[in-house]
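Honest question from a wet-lab person: if I give you the sequences of every part of a complex, can you actually get the arrangement of the whole thing, not just the pieces? Trying it with mine:
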Amino acid sequence: MSNRSATAVAHPNIALIKYWGNRDNEWNIPSSGSLSMTLGEVFTTTKITLDEERDRDFLSINGLIASEMAQQRLSAFMDGVRKLSGRRGYCVVESQNNFPQGVGIASSASAFAALALAASALFELPLDVIAVSRLARLGSGSACRSILGGFVEWLAGEDHLSSYAIQIAPPDHWDLVDCIAVVSREHKGVVSKEGHRLASTSPLQSCRIATANERLEVCRQAIQKRDFDALTRVVELDSNLMHAVMMTSTPMLFYWQPATLNILLEVPRKRLEGLPLCYTIDAGPNVHILTLKDHASDVRAWLKEIPGVQEVLFAPMGGDAKLVKVE
Amino acid sequence: MSNRSATAVAHPNIALIKYWGNRDNEWNIPSSGSLSMTLGEVFTTTKITLDEERDRDFLSINGLIASEMAQQRLSAFMDGVRKLSGRRGYCVVESQNNFPQGVGIASSASAFAALALAASALFELPLDVIAVSRLARLGSGSACRSILGGFVEWLAGEDHLSSYAIQIAPPDHWDLVDCIAVVSREHKGVVSKEGHRLASTSPLQSCRIATANERLEVCRQAIQKRDFDALTRVVELDSNLMHAVMMTSTPMLFYWQPATLNILLEVPRKRLEGLPLCYTIDAGPNVHILTLKDHASDVRAWLKEIPGVQEVLFAPMGGDAKLVKVE
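Yes, you can. This is the full assembly:
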C-alpha cells in the first residue's frame, strides 16, 4: 500500500463571468455561478504519493518546499480527501507549473484541479467529472472549472453536492486566444481567498450577484453563437463589476496599477480599428486580452507598445484535466 | 425697466457624498441626497442684464461667446425663470470665473448658483436661500449646494419644492482644505449632465442609492465631531462607489487616468505616516485631496512628487453665494 502514487495534469482558466464571494466560505459555495475558458499550453503537473513514514502531508511547488500557509492549505484539503474516502495516510505532493508565477495566471485553480484528480485516483474516490470538480472546489473555488477543457460553467448550487462545473462547449468550438499583458510580477494586495470573504462588505455585491444570472445567459449565448461583440460587452462589464465590488469593500481592494488602466483605456480605441479585443482582469494587475486566434499576433504587437507592458504571453483554448499515471 | 441688471458671486463645491443619477431628469431631482464643502477663494461672478432689443438670451463666459450648447442651456434656464416670475424679457449674461478650466473644479455649480441668485433679484423672485437653491438646481443639480457656504447637504426630496440644499455647518466650523492634484486639463469622456442619465444603466446604481442615507449620516456625524478618520472612510468609499457605477454603466465611463490611480494608490501609504489625507474624485481625472489647513503645504509637497501630477491648487472653506449689486 505504501509508496503508491498518482499523477495528474490540469490547465489554469480565465473567468469570463467572475467568481467573487461565497455564500458559504467553508465549502466554497459561491454567491453566483461563473464561466471560464480553460487555458491551453500552460498546465500544472501534480504527483501525489502515499508515505506511511510521515505524520503530516508535505508539499513542494516547482521543486521547492512550499510556504507554511500553502502546507496548511494542502493539509486541510487532504483531511477532506481522507474523510470522504474513509482512508488514512499522509502524502507527499509534488506540484510543477510549466508557466511562471506572477504573470496573471492563477496557479491555484490548475494545482487543485490536478491534485483533486490525482488524489481521487490514489484514495479511490469517484473519478467522474462532477465528483472530481466538487472535490477540486474544496481546495480553491475556481479549481472546479479547471477539471474541464473548453468553455466551462460553474453551477453555483447551494451545497457541496450541487456546486460543480460543467462543460458548455469543447475547446475546438471557438478559437479564442488569451493574450496576457504583464504589467507587474509583484503580487500586491490581498490574496483572492481572503478577498472572497470581503466581497459581502461592499454595498454593491448584492446588486452584482442579483444580476449575475443574466450575464451568464448572455455569455453562454455569445459563446454558442461565436458572437465576439456580445462576448466583449458582457465580459468587460462583468470584470468591471468585480473590480467595482473590490474597490468598495472594507478594506478597499485595488488590484489595478496605472499601467492596467493604460491598457483598459486603450482597448476601446484599438477596437475602433476593427480588431476583435476584449479585456478581463482577475485579482491582480495584469490584463487578459481575449481575441480570435488569427489576430493574436496583431494584439501582441499592439500590447507591447503600451507604456508599462513588460511582456505578453499567449494561451490558446485548453482541454480537460487528465490522469497521467497511477502506480 | 430695460438695462436693469443684477450681479452675484458664488463658489464651486466639492461633493463629499456624491450626486450621481436623477429620479427625475427634467427637474434634476436626484436619486439620493448629497453633501459637499463649498470652496473658498475660487468663485464665479455673474452679471445678468435685461435687454429689450434681444430676441434670445445671450451668454459670455470669461469674455468669450459661449458655445451653442451652453447658450441653449442658459435659454432653457431663463425660460424657467420667466415662467416662475411671470415676467418677460431676454437677457445678456456675463459669467467670469477666477479659476482656470479643466483643473477639476466644476464651474457649472458656481455659475448656475450665481446666475440663480442674480436672476432672482432681477426678475423679483423670492430671494430666500431655499427658493434660490431650488432655482439653481434647475440649471445644474449640484449648483443648489453652491448657494450656501461651509458644509452643505442637498436634501434629495421628491419634487421641485422639496429638493434643495441646507447648510449643516458654517465655513469656520472645521478648517479643511481641498488640495487639487491636476493630472490632465483635457476633458475626456462624457459630461456629467449626460452621465447622470446613464447612472441607471449600471447594475450597481440601485445598491449605491439604497445605502446613500447611511453614508450621509456617517458623513454628517464626522463633520459635526470633526472626526477626520471617519470622514476619510466614508468620503473615499462614496467616491469609489460613484466611479464603480460609472465604470459599469452602458456605455462604461472611465474618468480616471493612469496618474489618477497613481495618486489613489499613494494616499493610503502616505496616510500611514500620520498625515490626515482623504481623496475624492468627480467626473474627471483630477484628484481632490482633503486635509486639515495645517497640513496643506505638506500635502502639496507630497503630491508634487507623484508621477503625472502637473500642478496642485488649494481651496479653503468658502462662504455663501452673494448678491453684489442690483441696478
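Two things worth pointing out. DSSP finds nine helices and 16 strands in chain B. The CA atoms of residues 197 and 209 of chain B lie 15 Å apart.
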